Amino acid sequence: MAKQNGFFSTRLIAWYLKNKRDLPWRKTKEPYKIWLSEIILQQTRVLQGMPYYISFTSKYPTVHQLAAAKEEEVLKLWQGLGYYSRARNLHFTSKIVANELNGVFPQTYAELKKLKGVGDYTASAIASICFDKPTAVVDGNVYRVLSRVFNVALPINTGKGITYFKGLAQELIDHGQPGTYNQAVMEFGARYCVPQNPDCAHCIFNDKCEAFKKNKVSQLPVKLKTLKTKKRYFNYLVVVSEDGKTLLEQRKGKGIWQNLYQFPLVEASKDISEKQLIGTDGFKGFAETVSVKVITKHNDTPIVHKLSHQHLHTTFWIVETTALGEMGVPVSTVGTYPVPVLVSKFLDGFRLKIE
Question: Which end of the chain is more exposed for a tag (fewer CB within 10 A), N or C?
Fold first, then answer.
């Protein structure tokens, strides 16, 4: 297989060296910065992730400085990037590397994979880019390129498919320059062999691509349907007191947005009216703490915030009260708390009214 498909890595690397983007993490082999970039770019496009990479490397130039930070500070800097478990794992692992490994990242795939938040893809990327280990990366971009060029219709989200593509990628990797090869195949998938309407007529593989020859490009890669999207109905109670305070609570336990802050939340089974909200147990318990003066809906229709497997139908209710005392936080400080992007967007539009 490797000899038969030797054309693949040769053409790919030549294309990459001529067309690669000028990205900051490509100017270093420092494990800390490569690890940081790979965690940020999980589930995230380069254009969106770039400002976060710059912010993190500016505020925390070394793994020791990241490890010394408070989790709330890390979550705040991560705000808006989503999948917050990445940020929590990032912080946890930084403390392991800084305090238990003396700031030195492991050099092998197997040891890297033991770090929290580091899976097959990230371990392969760090090992190959930083330490020249021939461990092939496989992500969405790689699945797409390999499935098309070699006409592989195995579903990429099954055990059999994952094993096959990992093996194929490993056979194709250039052992002399594994880091360059891995970056090349990811770059090619991200910029050329794109999901919709790739320019196959001018592709460097158009004489070899089996999917192009058989007119199957749009059908590959194959991915089985997963869980249905769940609908949830959030009602945030935005308290505005006469003494310039509001209420925040921290999300605990497993689930979305762990350890982030939000306004008091009443979750319902469907969209509800003001009268129905006031009748819920969640609101009654809230009203025992806060003397409700006025309650109004912020917008006419709920905001639908879409996550990977959840759609959050969200309404912000404005609650006026006289004073909150010690349990309240100054409205002027709300922006310093790490909050879900859903809450952040609300604050951006409502800030003038609560300050």
Answer: N
Q: What is the pLDDT of residue 2?
A: 44
Cβ-based neighbours of 188, under 8 Å, separated by 6 or more: 12, 15, 16, 141, 145
pLDDT tens digit sequence for 107-122: 999 999 999 999 999 9
Retrieve residue 352's tokens. Answer: 């003038």
Q: How do residues 28-43 score in pLDDT, each as one tens digit?
A: 999 999 999 999 999 8
Segments of the chain assigned to CATH 3.90.79.10: 230-354
List phi, psi (to 5°) of 165.
-65, -35
Which of the residues are catalytic? 38
Fold held by 6-219: Endonuclease III; domain 1 (1.10.340)
DSSP 255: S
The SS3 call for residue 301 is coil
Just give the CATH number of 230-354. Answer: 3.90.79.10
The DSSP code sequence of 167-218 is: HHHHHHS-TTSHHHHHHHHHHHHHHTS-SSS--GGG-TTTTT-HHHHTT-GG
* Half-sphere exposure of residue 30: CA atoms within 13 angstroms, side-chain side: 13
State the pLDDT at residue 190.
Answer: 94
* Exposure letters 287-316 (e unless 16+ CB within 10 A, then b): eeebebeebeebeeebbebebeeeebbbbb
Is the pLDDT at 155 greater than 50? The verdict is yes
Report pLDDT for 127: 98
Total H helices, total E strands in the chain? 15, 9
Confidence band (pLDDT; 50, 70, 90) for 269? very high
pTM exceeding 0.70: yes
CA distances from 278 to 56, 134, 275, 319, 322 (A): 43, 61, 5, 11, 19
